[in-house]
Amino acid sequence: MLPDIKDFSFKELEAAMAELGEPGFRAGQIFAWIYQGGVRSFEACTDLSMTLRMKLKERYALGFPELIRRLQSSDLTEKFLFKLADGHSIECVLIPSGARKTLCLSTQVGCKFGCAFCASGRGGFKRNLKASEILGQVLFLRDRLNMSLTNFVFMGMGEPLDNFENTGRAILIMNSPEGLGIAARRMTVSTAGVVPGIEWLRDLGLQVNLSFSLHAVRDELRSKLVPLNRKYPLERVIKACQDYGRTSGRRLTLEYVLIQNVNDGPADADGLARIAARLKAKINLIPYSPVCGLDFEPPSKSRVDRFLKLLDERGARVTLRQSKGLDIQAACGQLAGSRGAGAAESK
Ligand code: SAH
Question: In sequence order, what are the residues at sequence separation of 6 or more whose Cβ sits closer than 8 angstroms to the Cβ of residue 242?
Answer without folding.
Answer: 278, 279
